[in-house]
Amino acid sequence: MAKIFKFAALYPKHLDLNGDHGNLLVLQKRLAWRGVSADIVSVTKPTDLEQFDFVLLGHGSRDAWAEVLRIDPELISKVGKLVRASKSVMAISSGYELLIEELESSSVSHANHVSEFRVVDKVVGYVNSDLVLPEIQQLNQTVMTLFHGPVLAKNPELADQVISKAGWCDVVIRNLEIDSVNELASASRRIAFED
Amino acid sequence: MFYLPALLIGRLIRFAVRFVRPGGGSALPGLVVSKLAPNLVYKSLNSFKDGLVVITGTAGKSTTTKMVVAVVRAHGKEVFTNPSTANIQQGFFSTIVRHGDLFGKVPGSIAILEMDEGHAARIVSKVKPITSVILNVFEDQLDRFIDPALVREKLAQVAKATEGTVILNADDQNCLQIASSLDNPIQYFGLSEKVTQSSASHMDYAQTFLAAIAKPTAQSIALDLDGLNLEVEISKERTSFTLPSRGTHFALDAVAAMACAKQILGHEFDLELAAAVLNELPPVFSRGEVRNINGEACEFILVQNPISMQLNLDNLPKHLGQVMFAIGRDVHDPSWMWTVDYSALKNVHTVTGFNYADAALVLSYNDVGIEVIEPEYHDAIDSFFALPAPAEGMKTVIYSADAMRRLRRYMGFTDPEDVERG
Asked: Residues of chain B whose C-beta is under 8 A from some C-beta in A?
């Protein structure tokens, strides 16, 4: 029987303020369209994150993070261990901030708040943050980004890069569904910068 | 006298814009007058004998305001109000240009205004409301507000600036947090346990992530909702009427409106008269509005944020005709569309609007079938309404505010009051 991959949606009621968890759906569907199955599992207070093939640490409000870290003070260090062990992880906005602070043992600074589309290395996304961090950076098999919401839907090449790096399937496989959403994503990236 | 030149210029601009673009011209005069006479709005809003009533919150402002105004007017009071498209500061200037005299005096003994949650806090710093209604806090416009807690703080400023009673949603923890910081008299409205349990979709208010506050006893309650038929209890008196539109959120708007009207009218408030008014009230345009297009009834549904999208999708009729899904320029950051559960929407005939690509992307990844993706909005409108009438249900347009404005202008629906019950 073919393996069913398991994706962890960490604290989805707290850390999906801007639709970041849509990235899990994008990965799941792009695998399904290539004949590969993946389950998305809502996870709170995880004891064994190693069992998951992909872990998403999304963005949450100030008060949401206060509650998450009250429930689970070790959460960020658990995710940090996954990054160091070259597991597949994605961290977004405030999730990115906390993870990079954990990985680099230094504080992230804040500046003027920006709320706009940006493009970095051909990746287009929406930044709604005051964090002084690169918009996107990759470490081992981890993608960390300030681009909130469904950045993988808008940037299917990045989604396929995550899939390919993790070795879940051959991303050369194309079909009608994938071509259709890739075309829409291309239009979406163009429209992001139209007046 | 100081305001006379500014108001004259505003009126000339309005006349010119409406001459060039019939149905348009609501925004520019307000923008110009706000620059020329920035204090005009405060002078005008301070001039009402019975004061200013503010209705604010994330969702339901237009419907609630329309209901309160209709009920209060039916009791014989002369009311000044704003159209639903004019709930930000610039819109108030436009409304004054349109309805006021050349000295900035607007007719009416009381002003009942819906206010955008961001602009309300600024306005009440200079004009104290006599009563305010705070409907709810949902996750909305995060590109503008960043964090729902900041919206709650702005609404708390409105509540604290209120000189009299603050009317709050007993079911929303955000409102209860606001209540805990107030010295004002408070009235609550809310849903009965029966309505809460039976509703197609729960009202997912923005979570506070703070210690939960026990739900207080509401004086105005939606007791039972069966389709459009609503039974309410207002200060222990009961009555029933039909809502203008489907959904629990409209029931909540109705009890908020009843509570507000009773607060304004005091002993003069007649519950049966209020119920009779709401029984006949047409919906606010595009809030479940049904119009005849080419001899065929079509429904128009405005979606402005995750909660309005979710509630409207969850309350779609069982038999749905072809659907046009149009997301316009007002959706600056389309990320929020990914927080919605689309399982109630199986197929969309046409996806269009400025943000057609993001709309089609989210629908595609959520397994919603799409027949046509048409980037050109006017072409999409023409093709959609030329389709044969559906075998069951009505053609339905689900659209964002910008797409709504463009469609209404293109189709010549220029009068916001020209709305009938479906």
From this structure: 139, 142-144, 146-149, 207-210, 333-339, 354-358, 360-362, 364-366, 373, 375
Q: How many domains does chain A have?
A: 1
The 10s digit of each residue's pLDDT in A4-27 is 999 999 999 999 999 999 999 999
If you count residue pairs, one on A and one on B, with CB atoms under 8 Å apart, how many are there?
A: 97
* pTM score, whole prediction: 0.84
- Tell me how far apart the alpha carbons of residues B90 and B276 are, in angstroms, rounded to a whole number: 34
Condensed to tens digits (0 to 9), the pLDDT of residues B206-227 reads: 999 999 999 999 999 999 999 8
Q: Are B329 and B209 contained in the same domain?
A: no
Q: What CATH code is carried by the domain that includes residue B362? A: 3.90.190.20
Q: Beta B323-326 vs B395-399: how paired, if at all?
A: parallel
Return the structure tokens found at B148. 């729902």
Q: Which of A67, A148, A184 sits opposite B364 (nearest CB)?
A: A184
Q: Computed from CA positions of residues B140, B142, B145, B146, in that sequence, does the dihedral angle turn out positive or negative? A: positive
Contact A163, A27 (CB under 8 A): yes
The partner residues of B369 in beta bridges, in order of sequence, read: B347
Contact residues on chain B for A149, CB-CB shorter than 8 A: 333-336, 338
Say yes or no: B220 and B341 in one domain.
no
Size (chain B), residues:
422
Q: Are residues B23 and B149 in the same domain?
A: yes
Residue B18 reports pLDDT greater than 80: no
Three-state secondary structure of B66-115: HHHHHHHHHCCCCEEECCCCCCCHHHHHHHHHHHCCCCCCCCCCEEEEEC
As for the ipTM of the complex, it is: 0.96
Contact B397, B299 (CB under 8 A): yes
Q: What is the CATH number of the domain that holds A143?
A: 3.40.50
Position B418 confidence tier, pLDDT thresholds 50, 70, 90? low
